[in-house]
Write the structure tokens for this entry.
Amino acid sequence: RLKSVNFLVPRGLIIVDYSLQPIKFNRRRLKEKGYSVKIYYNTVKGLFECDILCINSKYFSKSWKTPEVVFSFINNARKYCNKIVWFDDSDSTGITHFELLPYIDLYLKKQLLKDRNLYTKKYYGDRIFTDFYHNNYGIVDEDPYHSKPIDLRLVHKVGLSWHIGLGNMYDSIMPFKTFRHYGYFLYKIPFRDPQIKKKLDIMARGSTNYARNTTKFHRQKLREQLNKMNHLSSALDGRVSIRCYKKEMGSAKLVVSPFGWGEIGVRDFDAFIYGAALVKPDMSHMETWPDVFIPGKTYQPISWGFDDLEKNIMALINDDKKRKEIAKNGQNVYKEIISDKGMEFFCDWFVLQIEK
């Protein structure tokens, strides 16, 4: 018989839609592999009638001040479901819910620190990169710690899910109402050829207005360094229309994409789609799936202190062949993961992860 897999998710969050997109798109494939998948937006009748219950962490995002509510829900679900999988939909490698590990069977997260032993430490700002800015620049947050260190006896329960790049990245800059109106995304993207002539050297628009100082500092520091390179043509400050944003993205040689609440952002995939070379803070501390962030091949890494930013940018500006090669590689890898073959890989990965 088919194995039943039920997802409990909140309605109306675009970050959750990114995670659900490959599940929705591949329902038929998953059924062919022996898995019947249903999505629930509320705790209604039928939710617990499954072999595997997958809980998206955002469903309980308002319950963490009283975590007993979450523990109680999971204990109740345990009476009916054979396996409970917690899908951590947090943005960074650092925000975790490891206090749930004793209650669940599997804990899957979009991106993880390569060295799981690092999770035995507490990080200032709950992120390894915000901890860096606190320790090296003295940046202070009002409430720096939330995540609990891991109990290494339970680390075998922790694994990778998949990143936001399998969601609707092409329409991600559209208003959310428009995004929802389109329904299921069909992975048909009009990619921009990286070989065409580009007039704009750098595109790096984005907000620096973050509530957490350590996260805000990262973006402000990067913006300051880019503003010093006034000999290059760039689009950096201020908000622009969607039409202008797309035009700038399509005419940019380089797209500089900082960390935000997490390491991976929509702008990373915009760079791939619009044929620009992606320049991004070094991500060698983490792993994600599918692996599209290959240093020196699909993106140009820069240090978290940005001391090598100008050097790396000028190297790419002065070397058209290398710049176009990085842009093309990034685009090709992205095309591959959302191709028909890529969707088969996704289904195999999904089954492999939930059956651990």
